[in-house]
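Hi all, a correction to my earlier message: I attached the wrong file for TonB-dependent receptor. Here's the right sequence:
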Amino acid sequence: MSFLFEINSQLKPKPKMEPRWRLVNRSDLVLVYFACLCLTPLPVSYVRAETIEPKTKQNTNSQSKNESENPKPENGIRVTGKKDQRDREILRTPNSISRLNEQEIQDAGINRTGDIDKQVPNFSIIDSGSRNFTYFNIRGMRSIAFSEPAVGLILDGIPLNDNVALNTELYGLESIEVYRGSQATLFGKNFQGGVVEIKTKKPTNLSEGKITFDIGNYKKQETSVYYNSPIIYDKLYFGVAGKTTEREGYLSNVTGFYYPNNRPYELPVEIYKTHPDGRKGQAGRFRLYFTPNQIFEADLQISAESFDDGSLNLVNYLGAKSEREKALLQGCVAAPTNCSKLYGTYINRVNGDRKVYWDYEGKSNVTGNTYSLSTTTKLPNSNLKTATALRKMDIDPITADSDFTKVDQNRSIYIEKSTTFLNDIYLESKDKLNPFQFKLGIYTSNKITNIDQAKEHRVPLYVINDFPGLNAPTQEKNISRINDKNVSLYTHNSYTFFETFTITLGARLERQDSRLSHSEIAVGPSNSNPAGDTLLLSDPYSIQNRYNYNVSRIIFDYKPIENLMFFIGVSRGYKNAGYSTVVNIPSKANFKPEINDTIEAGIKSEFFKNKFGLKYTQFYTETQDFHVIRAINLSQYVNLNAELVTIRGYELETFVKPQKDTKIGLTAGYTEGIFNRFQDTVLNRNFNGKWVHFIPKYDILSYLQYRNDLGIFFRGEFQAVGQMYFAADNTVYSDPYYVLNARVGYEKENFSAYLYANNLNDRYYFTSYIDGTFQAVPGAPKTYGFVLTYKI
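and the right structure:
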């Protein structure tokens, strides 16, 4: 149930501001621009990556984007009902971008980042069973453990450049935009797969607030709130926002018997069960927005979050319904006389898909704090912007039953503490009507990560034989410290000829300095010291590397009429090199940077007074040294490089409004990733010609939405996801599936009420898989709830 309370107060009229500066000659800036486009190859101390990546003119439109998303109130009153200027800008931006405004976010029921991918083509979120490790995937460019994220999350201009807590809670939102393709020259932080940019409500002279209560099945309870208000009119504003969330787990951990062997005629006998994967947590944000004059503004934010997500959301993949169906058919062929009996038993067991049988349920905790300051200084013909942030994220700990049985053999323990300091300074165009647009910036970051990854052995005989002098339980630990420093110069520029033809050029130069320190030990009680002794398992080592990257981008677009554009572009992107942190051999700890070259072409259009819209893009990517993770067990895995991968596909977004109250929409994406050359050095196997795993072949969203002046609202959705392989040999996979969602409500200016239901058909499907363990992550079951909204 969600209860929404919104406060609005009308302020005294204020005089309209005069323009702050008049435009001056831009010739000096043109010279700076062309100087920055000289892409002379840089010396490389370890690996050299020369790249040619074209850039869109999205970033050059960032000021007008910010102004449209956070409109200034006119005479103290926020103007609504106008055509969203940012939508117009995206229509004229030569890149594949999906945008959801505040109303569309509410209509789609987006409450956390894990809900966004269901509304965006060629964007998938790979859930590892815990929000602590959630990997974004756009066009097959995906993040993996211990590497830089391929897809970035940018919150109010601050890039969250880690894989921790990306599946976080959302509240007080203004808009969500998803950029597909390399964004190395558009944003300060390099993201070679794409960017999810989220903007929250910025305080203005208009006081406003909202509080939301949400209850549903599985004992779901959520409360979110935001409130913005001026402290000194036209000078100083504040905002507060927060959210608490809690629900019961979807899994049932059953006690009292040993789990059968997945044969359909073996009925389990349940004595006691718990729901170990329950979720609860809270997050909050405080904001000060300062505009002392017409030239300068500053945005200070402090945010914190803490989540206790219980055990990992993992089940036995071989116990899935699809596998039991195969076993049933085989049994019917072998013994036709028993087929009816087997089928009846099978029907009785299909509701047991979310059952697990563990002796230890585990936990998954994450806390984080982010401190950020963004400023804008309005110069005569440009804006100087800065973004500075300090981000601390802790996983402390993730624990799990790593043998997944009732026998107390092994447990996995993972602790990670990271601190990131980043700074982004850039100069960008101010006059958006000028044919020449530019952006020039420098980005720096310093990230320190400490990782303690352990497997706890609890069988005394095993410990005595493998760790002489220690007793059970003994933890086999890999302790690592990674220091990663980056500094980059980037530029993104465009020029429009005759108001119809535009060329966009972008470039990025980056240096990465990284260092890994690693040690492997065993810690456990001994006869001489029950409190614990330490046994050195391998010699400690340190590795230090330096990489230089040089990438660029070029795009041509043609706009024959106002609401129609064609574009084609070529780009080079990259994902930084890194280290595997559980390898005791230094030569195997490195993995190289991932370099990809992409060509894409598309069309964007809107006709019939915005009653019909169409966006279509095709792309082809060749990637060298594609990052692949190879799991050894639940707590040990390494990163490899596939020599060559090709990825191709398309994305489509279209809508039609047959009449003013009704909207029909369709989004679809298709991605085909193939290993052209990949020799797995862990398995010593060749996977040439296999499909790249963890890339859904397609995703489809179609919806029908109705909203009239009487306050009646309805939205129905059909979501389909294609086959996704979970292993490089393509033997483990998730079958195609579809889900149905619905939302119906009554809306008035001061009051509205909603009923919602997701996965109405209660489809059982998988979103991820832990390689080497036969454990998979199931998607959410059927959920439903009730929402109330009240506004004043």
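Sorry for the mix-up. Residues 85-791 form a domain with the Maltoporin; Chain A fold (CATH 2.40.170.20).
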